[in-house]
Q: What sequence folds into this?
């Protein structure tokens, strides 16, 4: 018995050299499906990002009506302490240079304290060493943040809006509006979280 094989006519499929969708092809290729899914995912991600931007800018972008009016930065002068004698009361405003001068300290918006105090330390060998550990350039009393508006009660705590005092920037990239969240999580644990985003 002889097997005769008759050729079956095949449809001509356009030859697509690229691995993307071929517009003249009726069958959907695997690469075409992948590219379609990637494009759909990118569109959905862009839409979600735009929606989040609109929602977040409405909450944090507008200033509350009951915000205290603070003076402009040009009206600000450091409120220097008259005498800080204790080491724990001084916060170093110029930590990068312990021997900073008056002009550099005041240019940063800090207070220069002339009083010199030195500590004497005696080690186990009986050697006495004198060191000036108190900083000369300290933060003024009117630095940091002030509370604005009303507190928002939450479960086991509250959220308090804060605004930076309009003082010169000491280190750059200052956050102007922050939110402090205070929660009593357990009987013995208080959680305080400060963030630049609304909780």
A:
């Amino acid at each position: 018995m002889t097997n005769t094989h008759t050729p079956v006519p095949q449809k001509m499929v356009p030859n697509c050299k690229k691995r993307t969708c071929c517009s003249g092809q009726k069958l959907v290729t695997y690469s075409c499906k992948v590219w379609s899914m990637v494009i759909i995912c990118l569109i959905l991600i862009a839409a979600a990002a735009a929606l989040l931007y609109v929602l977040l800018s409405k909450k944090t972008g507008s200033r509350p009506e009951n915000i205290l009016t603070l003076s402009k930065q040009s009206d600000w002068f450091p409120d220097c302490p008259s005498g800080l004698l204790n080491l724990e009361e001084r916060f170093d405003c110029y930590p990068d240079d312990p021997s900073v001068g008056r002009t550099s300290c005041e240019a940063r918006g800090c207070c220069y304290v002339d009083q010199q105090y030195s500590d004497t330390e005696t080690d186990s060998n009986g050697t006495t060493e004198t060191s000036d550990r108190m900083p000369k350039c300290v933060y003024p009393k009117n630095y940091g943040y002030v509370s604005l508006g009303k507190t928002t009660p939450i479960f086991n705590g509250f959220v308090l809006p804060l605004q930076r005092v309009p003082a010169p920037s000491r280190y750059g990239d200052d956050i102007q509006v922050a939110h402090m969240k205070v929660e009593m999580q357990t009987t013995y644990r208080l959680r305080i979280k400060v963030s630049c985003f609304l909780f």
In short: DSSP finds two helices and nine strands in the chain. Residues 60-71 have pLDDT under 50 and may be disordered. The beta strands are 111-112, 119-122, 128-131, 137-138, 145-147, 152-154, 157-164, 177-186, 189-195.
